[in-house]
């Protein structure tokens, strides 16, 4: 059975264009994978930022963790397990001030973990999360996807590739303030053209 992980990150809740777009992508995928298991995580509802306590918890042997470390590691491992179990990731990337929102960066910090999603070798880093596909819903008021102003899409593609996810498609509803209807029409066409 195919497992689809949907990651939303906009602080706008149901009014978010990125949330509408991740739903459209999910609907498109379910046309081909009607029995897929869908797991959803809304990062705007909160995700721990990594810090010294997080680092000490996830890299301490389970049998040596304190009660606090066990709780921190349990939450971190749950985020990692969702990604490991997913065949397809649908990721909302709303652009805030030319970059990804802080909560999406925190999610990335959780999943880019040495020994879990990548390892260092004599020839460089090797991603361990291979065989997965990611579809990114890129939305912005004014930043064009792939432009010199866009510090979000290239970063996310780099991080996903670093952990082994190299099959990445972007669906963009960008430059919304310059024509929301046109931007959504382009995005809808891109969703329809996705190889599900």
Describe this structure in words.
This protein has about 200 residues and is of the alpha/beta class. The chain has one domain: 3-Layer(aba) Sandwich (Rossmann fold), CATH 3.40.50.360. Helix content is about 40%, strand content about 20%. It contains six helices and seven strands; from the N terminus they run βαβααβαβββαβα. The protein has helices at about 15-30, 50-60, 65-85, 100-110, 155-160, 180-195; strands at about 5-10, 35-40, 90-95, 120, 125, 135-140, 165-175. Strands 2-1-3-6-7 form a five-stranded parallel β-sheet, with helices on both faces. Strand 6 (about 135-140), helix 5 and strand 7 (about 165-175) form a beta-alpha-beta unit. It starts with a strand and ends with a helix. The mean pLDDT is about 95.
Short structural summary:
The chain has 196 residues and is α/β, with parallel strands linked by helices. 39% of the residues lie in helices and 21% in strands. The chain has 6 helices and 7 strands.
Features:
21% strand; five-stranded parallel sheet; 196 residues; alpha/beta; globular; single chain; Rossmann fold; two-stranded antiparallel sheet
Helix content: 25-40%
Distance between the termini: 15 Å
Order of helices and strands: EHEHHEHEEEHEH
CATH architecture call? 3-Layer(aba) Sandwich
Strand content: 15-25%
> How much is the average pLDDT?
95
For the largest beta-sheet, the strand count, sense and barrel status come to: 5 strands, parallel
Q: Which descriptor suits the 3D outline? A: globular
Q: What's the Cα radius of gyration?
A: 17 Å
Strand runs, count: 7
CATH superfamily: Flavodoxin domain
Residue ranges: pLDDT <50 for 5 or more in a row?
A: none
């Amino acid at each position: 059975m195919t497992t689809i992980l949907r990651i939303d990150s906009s602080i706008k809740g149901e009014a978010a264009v990125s949330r509408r777009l991740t739903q459209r992508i999910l609907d498109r995928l379910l046309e081909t994978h009607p029995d897929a298991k869908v797991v959803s995580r809304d990062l705007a509802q909160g995700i721990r930022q990594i810090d010294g306590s997080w680092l000490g918890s996830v890299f301490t042997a389970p049998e040596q963790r304190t009660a606090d470390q066990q709780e921190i590691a349990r939450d971190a491992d749950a985020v990692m397990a969702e990604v490991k179990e997913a065949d397809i990731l649908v990721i909302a990337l709303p652009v805030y001030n030319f970059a990804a929102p802080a909560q999406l960066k925190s999610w990335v910090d959780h999943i880019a973990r040495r020994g879990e999603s990548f390892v260092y070798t004599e020839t460089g880093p090797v991603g361990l999360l291979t065989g997965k596909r990611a579809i990114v819903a890129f939305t912005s008021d004014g930043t064009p996807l792939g432009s010199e102003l866009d510090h979000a899409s290239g970063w996310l593609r780099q991080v996903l590739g670093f952990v082994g996810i190299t099959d990445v498609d972007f669906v963009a509803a960008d430059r919304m303030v310059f024509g929301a209807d046109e931007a959504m029409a382009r995005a809808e066409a891109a969703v329809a053209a996705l190889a599900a």
